[in-house]
Structures are given as structure tokens and as C-alpha cells.
Amino acid sequence: MIRTVLMLNPLNGDQDAVIRYFHEKEVLERSGRIDGFLATELHAPLEGGPLLVTAAWEDVAAYDRWVNDPWRGQSSGWLSPLLDQDLQAKSRGAMYQLVHGVGKIPTSFK
């Protein structure tokens, strides 16, 4: 299993606009349709800073399928105006390999 981590810096600190985008466009739900997907979350900082998108994938090939998904490529262009960074169609998060873990983590919040 691998975990990907992508930091998103909202333009003018407007986290709500980015969070709304993720909900309205069902970004996380769309990634869940990719073969090899395990889980994903969008995290908002408690005290300023970037939003954090994490995802768990069976392997690097599964994450590559998401990075190469045509809808994801288009959505980067729609999301970029909400960010204080240049998000490209093929932008990738950092990848980490799971080497040890304990516990239960929820994958859905309402």
C-alpha cells in the first residue's frame, strides 16, 4: 500500500472555496472509482496553513491511473484559480510506502 499526500494552498486563505469545490465536483468520490483505490480524505488545518489531501492506493500503478485520468487532468484547471499555486494536470502528491501501522481510521465524514 502507498499513501499520497498533496498540499493545497487556498488563494487568499479561502479554504471554504476549495472545500466547496471538492464537495460539488465530488473529487474524492471520483478518485474512488479508480481500480486500486483504497481511501482518501481532505483535511483542513485547525490553525492556518494548507489543506491536505491524502489517499491510500494498492500500489503506485493505481495512483498513476488516477494521475492519468482525463477528468482529473481537467479538474486541475478548474481548481487552480482557487489556489495560490500552479496545479498542473499531471501534478502529483508525495508518495509514501506503508511500513507499519496500527488503529482504525474512518474514511467518511458527514
Describe this entry's structure for a reader.
This protein has 110 residues and is α+β, with helices and mostly antiparallel strands. It has one domain (2-97): Alpha-Beta Plaits (2-Layer Sandwich), CATH 3.30.70.100. The protein contains 4 helices and 4 strands; from the N terminus they run βααββααβ. The chain has helices at residues 15-24, 27-31, 60-67, 70-79, and strands spanning 2-8, 37-43, 51-57, 94-97. Strands 2-3-1-4 form a 4-stranded antiparallel beta sheet. Strand 2 and strand 3 (51-57) form a beta hairpin.
Secondary-structure map with pairings?
Elements (H helix, E strand, L loop, with lengths): L1 E7 L6 H10 L2 H5 L5 E7 L7 E7 L2 H8 L2 H10 L14 E4 L13
Antiparallel strand pairs: 1-3, 1-4, 2-3
Using brief descriptors, characterize the structure shown:
Alpha-Beta Plaits; 23% strand
CATH level-3 fold name: Alpha-Beta Plaits
As a percent range, the share of strand residues is 15-25%
Shape: globular
Give the assembly state of these chains: single chain
